[in-house]
Amino acid sequence: MNKPASVPEQFDAVVVGAGFSGLYMLYRLRQLGLSVKVFDSAGDVGGTWYWNRYPGARCDVPTTDYTFSFDPELEKEWTWSEKYATQPEILEYLRFVADRHELRSDIEFSTAVTAARWDEPAKQWVITTGGGREVRCRHYIMATGCLSVAKSPDIEGAERFAGPVYFTSRWPHEGVDFTGQRVAVIGTGSSGIQSIPLIARQASQLTVFQRTANFSIPAHNGPAPAETLRQLDEGRDAYRDAARWSRGGVPVEPTDVLAGAASEEVRRERFEAAWQQGELFGILNIFADQGVNPAANDIVAEMIREKIRATVNDPETAEALCPRGHYFGTKRPCLDTGYFETFNLPHVRLVDLRKEPIVSITEDGIETAGESFGFDAIVYATGFDAMTGALVGADVTGRDGLTLKDKWVAGPSTYLGLMTTGFPNFFMLTGPGSPSVLSNMAVSIEQHVDWVAGCLKDLRDEGLETIEPTELAEAGWNQHNQDCAAITLHPTANSWYMGANVPGKPRVFLPYIGGVGAYRQACDDVVTQDYLGFTRTGPGAVRCTDGVIRSMQPDVAMVMEFVNALGLPAMETLSAAEARALMAATAEDRPPGPEVGEVTDGVIPGPDGDLPYRLYRPAGPPEGPRPVVVYFHGGGWVLGNLDSDDPLCRDLCARSGAVVVSVNYRHAPEVRFPAAALDAFAAVQWADANAIELGGIPGQLAVAGWSAGANVAAVACQLARDAGGPRITGQLLICPAVDSDLTRPSYEENGDGYILTTALMRWFWDHYADPADRGDPRAAPLRGDLAGLPPACIVAADFDPLRDEGVAYARALEAAAVPVRLTRARGHTHTSVTMVDVVISGAPVRAEMAAALGNFFPAAEPRAHVS
Ligand code: NA7
Predict the structure, then answer these.
(1) What is the pLDDT confidence band of residue 119, given thresholds at 50, 70 and 90?
(2) CB 17 near ligand 1, within 6 Å
């Protein structure tokens, strides 16, 4: 009889990493009764806190918050000694957690996982460990941390140095004594900034090589903040819950103070308070717009630079230590204890690599462009291959032989930062695309672990074996992730958040910046919508509810949330006069829009009396005439006036370089159809006849309009064609109302909740035109003859009831051989693209509109630019 082949070890789940996330994952999986094995290459628990033992290593979120909340008893039994605990204390805490829950029995230390492969027929992962041992499991969970793979020293000659070399990320356990030594520290990120003051205490000479000066604020370390302790005492659960739903994982109320609107005194007060508090989430929350508005950011940055100048004695060193070239917060800001003061010590020197780059590391020191330095030891504080390094380095092969490394060659692609298509049952804790490094890690880790545990439980309860995101859901999440980043200043920085610190790494914003609470909600919504965007399979079963969990632009969603919270009455329940007053009131505090060269008001003769107009002339060169755009405001033929669309007109003028003439027209219900359309046509005739007086170029005349304004603009084009003039060179129709048929799908999909509702549209039509007139092409231009009309640009917004008629108009124009450009305002509502300087994600759409206007006037001069 043959000896039976040895049966490979089998587990329900294998977890890699025994830091914060791996420990809690193990705890939760055990609770579910699953068999688990955790591997870690370290000699004990701790993850990043096991390895990063450099002098001065501390957390940069107060430890009262940077702590587990899943075990109330643990919270009672453990007291942090300081506001920002040291690495040894945090490590001690994690050991305490491991002891308390007897976690070590399922952890194999000093064991690296070298590869993992999905075995499709068996629906299992095959894990290979360092010694070539194979272990099988159903679920493979990466608890490998975001900052665990050190960046290799990418400096010429690094291997030549004969003396000891230290990495902050792999510090010797026995510690290092630099007494009497000449020490070089390369890197001024958090690790450098924390360790430099302590290394300076021992070294006889310390030279700091700085490539990028970093923003750092004093930690003001000491006892745990009294206010947090009070809040925890009063209601620990409520406090922890507030953290879970907060923006950053610490209960900080986001400010609504805008830098530009605050007085100098208020600005300083707010800054000083944050400076004294010494917390990252405080200094990042001085002004609501500091993360998105360059001018607001500069105000904070300059106040930090003032502090640096006031601390560092030598003005040249102070200036070199002043961060420039990146916005505050776009690279991880640091908390320090005496960092800038260290440069006042006679044996400490700063070398600014921007002025004097390193040429090479030599056997006995470092050679820069201007000087040779001799050193006894070199410390690399040069950072990590953040967020993706540990994942792509783990040799993971999913279905059909696809490796994670190959899949992510252009940057990571995940659904919720948790999973990735092609890799069934492969989970990432705090993976790219989740809040992770932008948040209090402890809170984000607990949320991820809880979600994964819930998911595995649901799979088991429903008799399912595998789960994997769909391509649609994953692409949607990647898009959402980038949309969130795009409205901030973050993508402008060469940060490790962008992968920019590692040569050759794709430039992609890695973490999710939409906020911890918003993210949690998205994850929860996925589950309540039957695991939207996931395919789940089991014996004889395939379940998939496909879709995208977040497709609205994040700033549009914020505006919607704000507007909905105001609880304004539905406009269609008001009289026209009340609706007009409400519209004017809601516009009161909005930003004015960009400066233009000149704004003048006047009147033009209309078919039945004067019509007011406002002319916007672009600033700057070229002198001389410009193309003219006659613009018509929105408001359902009932609302709106020259003021209502003023910021949009300024924006179009500044971006396109054209003279914009915004013309008011008669409104319903006082004057009904076809007055508005006839006024619009009269305005176009007048502008054509008076082009020179308007500073325009004769023959270069376009029309534009938003909503009902786009309706009358489109009608004016048809009337001009029928009348044989004037010649209109283009029509820009922004979310146009072009048909009176309110049954298209977008009226159903977007009929409620996005400001312009189907009910309101009906109210507008009722005010404007009798049912019998609504088929008239002067009311519903989609029903007219479209041949021979001017080239068009039509903007259709995803969440607009009018979306489908805009698209239908574009298709119909195309069919009539009219050149058309259809611009999709992705993730926008009917109103959001027009919200200049409020909805940042509308700017690229308006840039496209301006470009379209430019194309209507091919011979026009170069345009003024607004970013
Ligand atoms: P960071 O924040 O990535 O800092 C690394 C530092 O090293 C940073 O100043 C880099 O300059 C510098 N660096 C990197 N490569 C080089 C080379 N080749 N030459 C000179 N200088 C170099 O890593 P940390 O370990 O300090 O902090 C990581 C996170 O851990 C931290 O944010 C906290 O969340 C905890 P650069 O800015 O790239 O020009």
Answers:
(1) very high
(2) no
Nearest CA to ligand 1 atom 37: 212
Q: Report the alpha-carbon distance of residue 435 to residue 417 in Å, rounded.
A: 8
Name the pTM for this structure. Answer: 0.95
Q: What are phi and psi of 224, to 5 degrees?
A: -55, 140
* Contact criterion met (CB below 8 Å) for 835 and 861: no
How far is 712 from 736, CA to CA, in rounded Å? 9
Longest CA–CA span in the chain (Å) reads 108
Q: Find tokens 């993992």 and name the residue.
A: 116
Question: Token match 């009176």: residue?
Answer: 740
Tens digits of per-residue pLDDT, 570-585?
999 999 999 999 999 9
The answer to whether the CB of 49 is under 6 A from ligand 1 is no
> Does ligand 1 come within 6 angstroms of the Cβ of 382?
yes
| Separation CA 734–CA 794 (nearest Å) | 6
Q: Would the pLDDT of 859 be above 70?
A: no
Q: What spacing in Å lies between the alpha carbon of 189 and ligand 1's midpoint?
A: 4
Ligand 1 pocket residue status of 48, Cβ below 6 Å:
no
Instruction: State the Cα–Cα distance between residues 88 and 242, nearest whole angstrom.
Output: 28
pLDDT tens-digit readout, 677-693: 999 999 999 999 999 99
Tell me, in angstroms, the distance from the centre of ligand 1 to residue 382's CA: 4
Asked whether 440 lines ligand 1 (CB < 6 A), one says no
3-state class (DSSP) for residue 49: helix
CB-ligand 1 contact for 56 (6 Å cutoff):
no
CA-CA distance, 553 to 558, in Å (whole number)?
9
Residues 6 or more apart in contact with residue 290 via CB below 8 angstroms: 259, 284, 296, 297, 299, 300, 328, 329
Give the tens place of pLDDT for each residue, 436-470.
999 999 999 999 999 999 999 999 999 999 999 99
Q: Are 703 and 629 in contact (CB under 8 A)?
A: yes
Output the residue whose Cα is nearest ligand 1's atom 4.
189
CA-CA-CA-CA torsion sign (663, 669, 673, 675): negative
Which region holds residue 380: left if phi is over 0, alpha if psi is between -120 and 50, else beta?
beta
Residue reference for tokens 């356990």: 173
Checking if the pLDDT of 65 tops 90, the result is yes
Measured between alpha carbons, how far is 491 from 504 in angstroms, rounded to an integer?
17
Q: Which residues contact 306 (CB under 8 A, 6 or more apart)?
A: none
- The separation between CA 647 and the C-alpha centre of its own chain, rounded to angstroms, equals 25
Return the best residue to mutate from 501, 505, 510 for the ligand 1 pocket (most ligand atoms within 8 A of CB): 501
Q: Is residue 17 within 8 Å of residue 42, measured between CB atoms?
A: no
Q: Measuring CA to CA, how many Å separate 588 from each of 560, 581, 582, 583, 767?
A: 17, 11, 10, 9, 25
User: Taking a C-beta distance cutoff of 8 angstroms, is the pair 494, 500 a contact?
Assistant: yes
Task: Give CA–CA dist 49/107, Å, rounded.
Answer: 17
Ligand 1 pocket member 84 (CB < 6 A): no
pLDDT tens digits for 164-203? 999 999 999 999 999 999 999 999 999 999 999 999 999 9
Task: List the residue whose alpha carbon is closest to atom 27 of ligand 1.
Answer: 190
191 C-beta closer than 6 A to ligand 1: yes
Whether residue 695 has pLDDT greater than 90: yes
CB 527 within 8 A of CB 516: no
Q: Exposed, middle or buried by CB within 10 Å (0-12, 13-18, 19+), for 573?
A: exposed
Question: Which residue out of 54, 186, 382, 441 has the highest number of ligand 1 atoms within 8 Å of its CB and is therefore the one to mutate?
Answer: 382
SS (H, E, C) 157-199: CHHHCCCCEEEHHHCCCCCCCCCCCEEEEECCCHHHHHHHHHH
Rounded to an integer, what distance in angstroms lies between the CA atom of residue 499 and that of residue 501? 6
Which H or E run contains 602?
A: strand 598-606
**How crowded is residue 710: how many other Cβ atoms within 10 Å of its Cβ?**
30
Judged by phi (left if over 0) then psi (alpha if -120 to 50, else beta), residue 126 lies in: beta
